[in-house]
Specification:
By secondary structure, the protein is mainly beta. It is built from one helix and 22 strands. The chain is elongated and about 100 Å long.
């Protein structure tokens, strides 16, 4: 089952729903992958253009701890109405230390407009956009898992008509985050065997080489049932483990696998 975390941002207040908690703010050196996408709910406008200039993630539940990490965002002006009814576009992909991410900050530029009746109107933007629109996430990232996070602008509620005929941008944003893959890990001994490890399913093969301490890991693995094959150096017997299940959002731990040496020839 896919794991999802939801949060809503309404400028001037934040409502947090259904979030996971984490009591340890320490971030390990192991990595997870976060993919951020932009999507939209339907709106009765011809175009709603927002100028995305930056994305940042905060890796601590305490505002004064941890650090803001800038994502390599695809900057530009996006028409939100291009991403309705399940469509989205990629904003950023980054590898982060496994652990808790608590907040995200979306920085908009000044080129925000709405098109009504064939005419473009500038969207007056709040001063908060200079430092970024901040909202809570509080999601736990696990080592080796790929997570997708969608920034869902409610274009209809975010573009507000003013009495003077102009429009202002008061962002109403929903984000949801779900794990998209699983992972496989284990240890293979003895170290002298130094095997190539393969994960095979549906004709596709993932391959890695065990590290010097015998550890191996397949990251970002699609869910399914895999055959794990250990191909050691000469002197050891190949080994296969059938029906290794990979579940979205989980790391399948195979534990320690021991490869047997090739039997010495019998003396005549």
């Amino acid at each position: 089952m896919k794991k999802r975390f939801y949060t809503y941002l309404i400028l001037a207040g934040t409502i947090v729903l259904g979030l996971s908690s984490c009591t340890n703010d320490e971030i390990s050196s192991d990595k997870a992958t976060l993919v951020v996408k932009l999507t939209d709910a339907p709106a009765d406008y011809e175009e709603v253009l927002i100028d995305v200039q930056g994305l940042q993630i905060h890796a601590s539940s305490n505002e004064n701890e941890g650090s803001w990490v800038s994502l390599p965002v695809n900057k530009g002006v996006y028409n939100l109405l291009d991403f309705r009814n399940g469509l989205d576009t990629l904003l950023a992909t980054i590898e982060l230390p496994a652990g808790n991410i608590s907040q995200m900050r979306l920085v908009l530029g000044s080129n925000n407009r709405v098109k009504v009746g064939g005419v473009y109107h500038n969207l007056d933007t709040p001063s908060a956009q200079q430092s970024g629109l901040k909202f809570q996430i509080n999601a736990q990232l696990e080592e080796g898992i790929v997570y997708e996070l969608w920034i869902d602008f409610d274009a209809a509620r975010s573009s507000v008509a003013k009495g003077n005929g102009g429009y202002s941008l008061k962002p109403v944003i929903r984000t949801f985050n779900e794990a998209a893959t699983g992972a496989i890990r284990g240890i293979v001994l003895p170290l002298a065997a130094n095997p190539t490890v393969k994960a095979i399913a549906n004709g596709d093969t993932l391959a890695t080489i065990a590290a010097q301490d015998g550890k191996f890991m397949f990251k970002g693995v699609d869910p399914g049932s895999y055959k794990i094959v250990f191909e050691p150096l000469a002197g050891y017997i190949e080994k296969t483990i059938e029906n290794t299940a990979v579940v979205v959002g989980q790391v399948t731990n195979l534990g320690t696998i021991t490869l047997d040496p090739v039997a010495a020839p019998t003396q005549q």
